[in-house]
């Protein structure tokens, strides 16, 4: 074992941390890609896209820009994924619906774009939307059409599209009937009215919601229809929240309080709770609450155990946005798709010829507490597992590392359980941190107490995509704190700060807390590493963080993977299973 972290590589003060928190509103953490920059819409088409950061098993088109996942569904033997796509370049613009199909959600066949601007009701763009399977196995898509570029980012209406040929399992051709749009904004906010959800059915009506805002109030408008064509706005919003900003890509679905199976979106019942998710345009993260569906008033009411606001729970505390779920009728599960934006610069994206990936689809279900969700990579991913490395009972002392060899560490699946003998050495939680902005508390503490600041119980975890002399590495780690009163708080971080020598990238130290019972003195971590992305699941999917990273030295065979501990309590790797992940057939 080599000595590690003898010196602090960087130190962040509370002040810089606060500044960087504020900075998310101005820096590249927030990509205002709806801004109209006409000349940037088309970039030189790069025929041979630069491969070094391309992923081996994450969904991405052959080239160009991709953002939100749209209308995921299962139809006649195929999973379908549509996505926001710029066919003309690696920056946002000219938005059409890209389309691919798959038998297993892992290997994908590309098809021609399914929905492209062509009619007065979507002339300036076909933005996000969802699919609903109508009785008789008839899919219908509802999406946002841009009918005018003014007011920015565009005048928005909701349109529907139906398959031209229901017997085609690829659903290659879609018709956009001329009775569109089916929903028009009836308020002034015509440029903040988008992203219809999958519809659900009860009380003789189909219902769907559309994301919106009024000043800083996020609004989910409810629409009802008997025939899916004529839609009427409900008197009350389905859900609304002040001081939060625009709700993009809302999602609403039932979730079973018994077991891990998913439910069809129209399911009602006593054992059913509900999830409401919104993508926050102002902060660029997806937060959710767990709550109740009041059928009498036709509104959603979050439980009082769910924080409804910027400090609420997130699906993922890293690069993850505009997500969407669907019910998989074959494996009876609810699956979550989320988009991971690049953290590289616009000009780097143009040079590499592509931008954006979809994270590995995740099964979601309710934690036994009933207060949060669990997420886990779909089991089909395991079909790509190749060479395996196993370790048991490896002890790592303070400052030590242990290299995991024998697998392809740039395309890998790592599953590890850490144990420790006692919680006594957990460092004190600094009460001053209560002054940090609550929506970024964990992230800020990850920045202040990174891997190089020695601790008691932790930091310990992985050093992924590390160069041979540790000039570059991405630590994914736990740090356990003791609060006044004796309670423990587990911090989980994925820190891109030391990930690359390239100074241009957005390299945040992402973080989330893990609500876990430490009596067993164990913490588990699964990380999916794929060249420029690391998706990490703490404690069976209680807290998830995805980081985009762009090492300059730690690439391909020059990359290493280590386990590390920089706390005074000895950490035991009780069990590690690590696999090389084969390259999937993607588009
Ligand atoms: N992306 C789409 C919008 C949506 C946003 C445009 C979220 O419909 O609000 O590409 O990333």
What does this structure look like?
The protein is mostly beta strands. The chain has two domains: 225 residues, Exo-inulinase, domain 1 (Jelly Rolls, Sandwich), CATH 2.60.120; 313 residues, Tachylectin-2, Chain A (5 Propeller). The protein is 5% helix and 44% strand. It is built from four helices and 38 strands. Strands 27, 29, 30, 31, 32, 33 and 37 form a seven-stranded mixed beta sheet that branches. Strands 9, 10, 11, 12, 13 and 14 form a six-stranded antiparallel beta sheet that branches. Strand 20 and strand 21 form a beta hairpin. Helix 1 packs across helix 4. The protein is globular. The protein starts with 13 loop residues before the first helix and ends in a 6-residue tail after the last strand. The N terminus is likely disordered. The site of 2,5-dideoxy-2,5-imino-D-mannitol (DQQ) has 14 residues, from strand 1, strand 5, strand 15 and strand 20.
Helix and strand content put the structural class at mainly beta
Number of domains: 2
CATH topology of the largest domain: Tachylectin-2, Chain A
How big a fraction of the residues is strand?
Answer: 35-45%
Q: Please state the overall shape, judged from the principal axes of the Cα atoms.
A: globular
Tally of alpha and pi helices: 4
Taking all residues together, what is the mean pLDDT? 92
Q: Could you name the CATH homologous superfamily of the largest domain? A: Glycosyl hydrolase domain, family 43
What bound compounds does this protein have?
A: 2,5-dideoxy-2,5-imino-D-mannitol
Query: CATH top level of the largest domain?
Result: Mainly Beta
CA-CA gap between termini: 42 Å
Q: Evaluate the radius of gyration.
A: 23 Å
Q: What is the count of β-strands?
A: 38
Mind telling me which CATH architecture of the largest domain this is?
5 Propeller
- For this structure, the quaternary state is single chain
